[in-house]
Amino acid sequence: MDAKVLIESFAEFARSKNVDRPTMIRILEDVFRAMIRKKFETDENFDVTINADQGDLEIFRIREIVDDDSEDIWDLDKISFTEARKIEPDFEIGEEVYEKIELEAFGRRAVQMARQTLIQRIKDLEKDILYNKYEELVGEIVSAEVYQILGREILLMDGEGNELILPKAEQISKDRFRKGDTVKAIVHRVDMSNGNPKIILSRTSPVFLERLFENEVPEVYDGLITIIKIVREPGERAKVAVESYDDRIDPVGACVGMKGSRIHAVVRELQNENIDVINYTENLDLYVTRALSPAKVSSITANEETKRLSVFLKPDQVSLAIGKGGYNIKLASRLVGYEIDVFRELNEYEEEDVDLMEFVDEIDGWIIDELKKTGLDTAKSVLSLTKEDLTRRTELEEETVDEIFRILGQEFDQ
C-alpha cells in the first residue's frame, strides 16, 4: 500500500466520522512519527509534510554533515562526510542533508499496522467526541427512537445513530414503548465502560419534570419563575414548589396555564402523573398546609430537634392528607424537609376513644409509630378500617394486624 492510497482511505474514513481536517492531519502525523521512532529511534530530526486532500506524504530526514573522524559521527542527527557525498557529490561539511524517506522503507508490516492504528485512533476520537457531547448534555432533555426492548433496559438511537440506554429503574412504571417510538428523557449520566461511553437516560428524575416545565412555561424558562424544589413518585404524583420575585406574576397560575393548558402537556408526557404546583413560602406552617393540599390542616406543632411535625386535622381530612397509597404525605414530608405525623382532632363523641400510646405495654412502639404515620392515633381510628385496608396502608404483616385488632377490640369489649 503506497502513501497516497493509505492517506486517501484514512481521510475518507475520517470524514465519514465528521472529524475536522486539523485533527485528521494531527492524527496522521502522530502515527507516521511513531513509525519513524520505531525505525530510527527518534523523530526529532525528521520533517513530516502531509496533504490529506491530495493524499501526499513527504518525510525528510535532516542530518548535519560532520567530518569522518568527528566524535559526533554516531549522533542520530549527524552524517559522515563520506556518506553525505554518496547522496549528493557536492555536499560540504557543516551543511544539512535532507534525505527523503519513502513509505516503503518502513516495510509492509509497519504500513499495515499504521493503517490499523489510524482507524483505531479515529474510533477512539469518535468515542471521546460522543462522551464529551453527552457529558455537556447531562440534565438536558433529548429525544431518541426505540430500536430494541430488553428485559432490564430499552436501547434507543439518537439522530446520529448513537446508542442511548433507558434502564428499567429510570422508566415510569406506566411507560409502554414499542420499537420505532420516539422517547423523551433527560441525560442522567455518562459512564465509561471498557473504554466505550455509556449514555444513561432517565424519565423518573425530578430534573426531567423541571425541564418539561421549562419547555411549557415561558416564565420558568426566562427565570421569572423559579422552581425551588421538586419531589416525585414517578407516574403517580409530584409536588413542585415555585416562587416568583415579580409580584405581578402568579407562579402557580402561570405554571398551570389557562384551564390547565400548560400543565396538561407535562402530565401527558409523565403518563398522567398528578402534579401539585405549590407557592413556596418561608413560613413553615403555611408551607406545610400548602404541601398537604387538598387536605385542610387545623394546627401544626414542630419539633426542630427531631425535624418532625405533628399535624392535626379533622377526621374527614386525614385520608386526604395521606392520599392514595400514602403518596401525598410522603411527598409533602420530602418537600418541606420534615417527617410529618398526622393526628385526628377528636370530637365530643370520640372523646371516649383511647389514644394508641395507652397500649404501649401490649403493642410494640415501632408498630404504634407506623400507625401514627398514617394518621391512626386512636384505637377507634384503627378499628374503623378493615384488616385489608390497614395492611395495605401500613405494610404490616397480616399476623401483626390481627394481633392489633385483637388487643384494641378487647379494650372496647370490656
From TrEMBL:
Gene3D superfamilies: 3.30.300.20, Nucleic acid-binding proteins (2.40.50.140), NusA, N-terminal domain (3.30.1480.10). One of its GO terms (molecular function) is nucleotide binding. Its main location: cytoplasm. CDD domains: KH-II_NusA_rpt1, KH-II_NusA_rpt2, S1_NusA. Pfam families: KH_NusA_1st, KH_NusA_2nd, NusA_N. Keywords: Cytoplasm, RNA-binding, Transcription, Transcription antitermination, Transcription regulation, Transcription termination. Transmembrane segments: none annotated. It is found in: Cytoplasm. GO terms for cellular component: cytosol. NCBIfam families: NusA. Participates in both transcription termination and antitermination. PANTHER family: TRANSCRIPTION TERMINATION FACTOR NUSA (PTHR22648), TRANSCRIPTION TERMINATION_ANTITERMINATION PROTEIN NUSA (PTHR22648:SF0). Belongs to the NusA family. Monomer. Binds directly to the core enzyme of the DNA-dependent RNA polymerase and to nascent RNA. This is Transcription termination/antitermination protein NusA. It comes from Algoriphagus locisalis. The gene is nusA.
